[in-house]
Specification:
The chain is an alpha/beta fold and about 325 residues long. The chain has 14 helices and eleven strands. It starts with a helix and ends in a 6-residue tail after the last helix.
Length: about 325
C-alpha cells in the first residue's frame, strides 16, 4: 500500500473539486454577498456534525474580518436558543444532504421569523435548498474517503466557500490591516499597529546623573539602573549625553582614563532620542535597530527626559520592526 500515493490522490480529488466549484460560481454567490453585506444584525451560521464544525470556523473567520457573526447549533436552537436570532439577522445553514434532521426542524421557524436564509447544500431540491433565499452549491463528485462516506472533499469545499465569502466581503467593505488588527489586539499585527512608545517606556527610577557626576559615581548608577546606560543632564535637567557600557569599555582603553573625571568626558554627546510618545513601538524598534543602540531616551519638547525605551522591553512585549 503506497500511502504517499493515497495522500496525493486525496489532495488531487479535493483540488479538482475546488477548481470545479470555482468555475461554477455565479449570481447566487453575488446574491449571498449582497445579503450578508446588507445584514444590519448578525450573520448566524448553523450546521450539524462536520458541517457544524466547519460552520464554527466560518463564523470565527467572518467575525474577525468585519462581519459580525456567531455559530448556533440547531439542537440548541430547538431548545430555546432560537431566541438568539432576531429581526435584522441573517442565517447561513450548512448541510451537504440538505436533510439533516436537526437542521430541517428549525427551518420553518426561521421562515416564520422572516430571517433571510443562505443555504449551503449539495442538493437544491432538498428541504434546505427549497427553504433557502440564496442557494450555494457544495456538491462534489466524490469524497476523498476510500469508502465514499466520510465528509472530506465536501467539508474542504464548504470551508473554501466560507473563506471566499469572507474575503469578498473584506474587499467590498474596504477592510484594511488596521481593521483586522483592531479585532486582534493581542496578535503580532495588533501589536505592530497599536502599541506605542508611551505604552512600553519606563518612567520611574531612571538612571539619570548630572553633567558634573564623576565616572566612578556613574558606574554605580549604571549598575543600579540595570539598563547598561546612564543619562546625563545639565543643571536645568536638559538631556546632554548618554554613557553606555560600550562607552565605558572604550574609555578603559584610553591612556588618560580616570574614574574621577566627569562621566560626560567619556559619554556620547547628542545621542539619539525621541519626543513623540505616540510613535508606534514597532517604528521605535526600527530606530533602535538601525542606530544599533539598546536604549532610546524619550524627551519632552524642552529636551528633558520623561522616559526611556529599552530594546529588551520591546522584544519581551513581542514587538517586531516593520
Amino acid at each position: 500500500m503506497d500511502l504517499i500515493k493515497i495522500a496525493q490522490e486525496t489532495f488531487q480529488i479535493e483540488a479538482d473539486a475546488l477548481k470545479k466549484a470555482s468555475e461554477r460560481l455565479d449570481q447566487h454567490f453575488l446574491d449571498a454577498i449582497e445579503l450578508i453585506y446588507n445584514t444590519k444584525g448578525k450573520l448566524i451560521i448553523t450546521g450539524v456534525g462536520k458541517s457544524g464544525l466547519v460552520g464554527a470556523k466560518m463564523a470565527a473567520t467572518f467575525a474577525s474580518t468585519g462581519t459580525s457573526s456567531f455559530f448556533l447549533h440547531p439542537t440548541e436552537a430547538l431548545h430555546g436558543d432560537l431566541g438568539m436570532i432576531s429581526q435584522g439577522d441573517s442565517l447561513l445553514a450548512i448541510s451537504n444532504s440538505g436533510e439533516s434532521e436537526e437542521l430541517t426542524k428549525i427551518l420553518p421557524h426561521i421562515k416564520r421569523f422572516e430571517i433571510p436564509l443562505i443555504g449551503l447544500t449539495g442538493n437544491p431540491d432538498s428541504s434546505l435548498g427549497r427553504y433557502s433565499d440564496v442557494f450555494l452549491d457544495i456538491s462534489v463528485e466524490k469524497e476523498a474517503c476510500p469508502l465514499g462516506v466520510a465528509p472530506t472533499t465536501s467539508t474542504t469545499l464548504t470551508m473554501a466557500i466560507g473563506d471566499a465569502l469572507a474575503v469578498a466581503l473584506m474587499n467590498k467593505r474596504g477592510f484594511k490591516h488596521e481593521d483586522f488588527a483592531s479585532f486582534h489586539p493581542g496578535g503580532s499585527l495588533g501589536k505592530k499597529l497599536f502599541v506605542k512608545i508611551k505604552d512600553l517606556m519606563r518612567t520611574e527610577n531612571l538612571p539619570v546623573i548630572s553633567e558634573n557626576t564623576t565616572l566612578k559615581e556613574a558606574v554605580v548608577v549604571m549598575s543600579e539602573g540595570k539598563m547598561g546606560t546612564v543619562l546625563i543632564v545639565d543643571q536645568n535637567g536638559v538631556f546632554k549625553a548618554l554613557l553606555s557600557d560600550g562607552d565605558l569599555r572604550r574609555a578603559l582603553m584610553k591612556k588618560d582614563f580616570d574614574l574621577n573625571y566627569p562621566a560626560i568626558t567619556y559619554a556620547t554627546l547628542h545621542p539619539t532620542s525621541y519626543q513623540d510618545t505616540e510613535l508606534l513601538a514597532s517604528d521605535a524598534l526600527e530606530i533602535i535597530e538601525t542606530r544599533r543602540i539598546q536604549l532610546l531616551p524619550i524627551t519632552d519638547k524642552t529636551n528633558k527626559i520623561i522616559g526611556v525605551l529599552h530594546i529588551h522591553d520591546l522584544v519581551n512585549a513581542g514587538i517586531k520592526s516593520n
